[in-house]
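Input:
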Amino acid sequence: MADPHAGAGAPSVFAVAFKDAAFAALVALGLAAPMLGLVTVQTQSGIELEQHWGKVAIAVAIVFAGRLLLNLTLWRPGRKKSLGYVPPKVEARLARFAKYLAPLAILGAVVMPMLPFTERYAIDLGILVLTYVMLGWGLNIVVGLAGLLDLGYVAFYAVGAYSYALLAQYFGLSFWVCLPLAGILAAFWGVILGFPVLRLRGDYLAIVTLAFGEIIRIVLLNWYWFTGGPNGISGIPRPSFFGLDFDRGDDGFAATFGLTYSPLHRIVFLYYLILALALLTNVVTIRLRRLPIGRAWEALREDEIACRSLGINTVNTKLTAFALGAMFAGFAGSFFATRQGFISPESFVFMESALILAIVVLGGMGSQFGVAVAAVVMIGGFELFREFSDYRMITFGLVMVLIMIWRPRGLVSTRSPSVFLKEKKAISGSLVQEGHG
Amino acid sequence: MEYFLQQLINGVTLGSIYGLIAIGYTMVYGIIGMINFAHGDVFMVGSFMALIVFLALLALGVTFMPLALLIVLILAMALTSLYGWTVERIAYRPLRGSFRLAPLISAIGMSIFLQNMVQVAQGARVKPLPPVITGGYQFGAADGFVVNVSNVQVIIVVTTIALMVAFSLIVSKTPLGRAQRACEQDRKMAALLGVDVDRTISLTFVMGAALASVAGLMYLLYYGVIDFYIGFVAGVKAFTAAVLGGIGSLPGAMLGGLLIGLIETFWSAYFTVEYKDVAAFSILAIVLIFLPSGLLGRPEVEKV
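Output:
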């Protein structure tokens, strides 16, 4: 590293930066030339190559310019503080601010559909975002509190969705009967899948849960006569408002309350339903954290061996975390089924698990507020860039990597302890263990 | 019996491909203790590199097959290694010393990035390659049942064995291999004794990527179709192979690859094709639960 205050003999900062940028550009050329420059296309006579050297030039130029700029500014030798550094005082103040921000955000979510300028699209988007907020909070119990890295969370979402769809299809049960049943079934599956993996830790646990998630999806895909296979299940009944359907009929919701029928009623109802479910998840999590079981989860995340020597039953502790997380995914799943009216294994691919995990991790594991913010930002961002659907996944992957480098502890990286001696102090996220179950 | 033999041969071929990918997982896990989730996608990039280089050679007029394939092998290895090196440099090196989950999340991000980058750059449709190597041998044509061994299968198995021997020698005999084994045992101590740890880890990733690209080329030759999504399932299966053989052990990875290839082939042949992935994934779970250190691995001692 060149010292900027060194004498004339040392190479200048610019020369070093230029050399480094040139090297990066050379690597970029090697990476991009075959992948972007030579595109395989299927033609009448077989498969051929098309040349696109312009793209390669652009990619190399971007890498060179970007690297040079970074070398001269943020990565300049002698610069003390890195980009991700926020003074602890500021972080603590932000955390305190977040305390007031959370009720405000909830209030905003409650009044949003009533505002005069809110369109149907906004409410639809709100439903989508809240579904992911709920899933994020559910997974937060497993990953953030108990420290068990679950890459197959979407399996429980699928169990919930299929439970409702199949119960409605074969037994004609209504949404309100199936909602708790779906939660119970998902929790049951959480225990079944959780039981064998109790001994595993960290990365191994992640891969096995991923495998379980894929197994459930493949079974749903191939169990043709029961689940409809790749065609999925359609015509899933919509939820009713205390027995009143949202339709044009005389005993429908609109007619009973003397309103003119509007399809918007159901959308708004669904919005409040998922808002209530998400807030339920939040309240349950916050309350559980203070109970012995919640403290046991956090203790387990910090040190399993110490836990065991203190007499905590690690089997029960892990299983309850799995079961509760799965239960909330089951609720969210049956909501998803009733909202879409159609489900197929397409909706429960590994990407969804990765997305939910990304929300939890990028928001800051264990921080309820951070998870909600991350869900809003990510799902909202996904919707904003819907037109660039090809590029948004590339950006998504890149953002995951960059945020991990920038702030490995997520956006909200302070944690407030659930147990304290005299005063409650927020601590830095880097002081807590995670993922080493 | 002939059917069994035929499946055995197919299984060994498939197992060789899995084994080559599994070595990348096992070496990286051995040295830095992380699951390189993007490794399956590096394999996918490798197969695309092989296809692109091969088509470029055809366009340039190189039609003598053995020469063309040799050039493809070398160039694909070099280009894919560059990808492996860059992935490590961008996504993993800045996270060394961070908390345990960070590299895994970063690797998932990298995997998503590579997959979608290839999809956008090369198109989402499958890329078929007409059979390049034709012909083969037939055995036991007596009662109508024939056991076929195609030249592609012979090439795959022979190349795999040759590469296995070469890489085992690198790890056991060269200074690089010694540095790798030192880093595997104790990274801090190795650094104190003058081993360039960053460089050793980079080279480990390069070696893993090179082998994955060979696997990619084999996959392309054997199946004749690739797309941007082949990395995910192949990656999980190769990881299963690495775990089955005992993660951190090179011969273990190869043995695990063979077993997974055989199990998958026989499952498809005698039970159902639809559930062949379920079979592989279940084995992963079963092995991790009942035999966490694998067949040839050292048991992990928990230090308090």
